[in-house]
C-alpha cells in the first residue's frame, strides 16, 4: 500500500529531465545512454550492397528505387494496348478478353510479331501468376522483351 500511495503522489505532468532534477551520477548515466542511442541512430543505415535482388523492389539509390518489379511488369499489358490503340481504335481490348487472348488477337491481326508475342505472354503470365518475387535482372530482361514487342507494333501491317 505504501508503494501505491507514494507512486500516486508523483505528479503526472512532471518529468525529471533537467540536471538539477536528478542526482549527478543518475543524470550522467542517463546522458551516457542517450548519447549512445544517438550515435547508434546516426550510424544505422541500410547496407545498399547487401540488399538481395530477389525481394521484388528496386534497391535504394538506384534507377529503380522503390519500384515494385512485379507491379510494373503487370502494367505492360495496358501500355501495349495503349500503343496498339494509337494505330486503330478497332484493336481495343474487350473487357472480357484475357491478356493471352488479347495478345493472340493482335497476332492474328498482324499487329505484333508472333514469336515475340508468345514469349512475352508466357513471361507475363509467369510474373503475374507466379509466387516468386521478380528480381532486377529478371525485370530488365522482361522489359527488353516488352520493348522488342512494342517495336513490332504496326511494322507488320
From TrEMBL:
Topology with respect to the bilayer: Single-pass membrane protein
GO cellular component, one term: mitochondrion
Entry keyword GTP-binding: no
UniProt keyword list: Golgi apparatus, Membrane, Mitochondrion, Transmembrane, Transmembrane helix
Entry keyword Membrane: yes
Major localisation: Golgi
UniProt superkingdom: Eukaryota
Family matches, as InterPro entries: C1orf43 (IPR010876)
Subcellular localization, as worded in the UniProt entry: Golgi apparatus; Membrane; Mitochondrion
Summary of the function given for this chain in its UniProt record: General regulator of phagocytosis. Required to uptake Gram negative bacterium by macrophages.
Name of this protein: Defect at low temperature protein 1
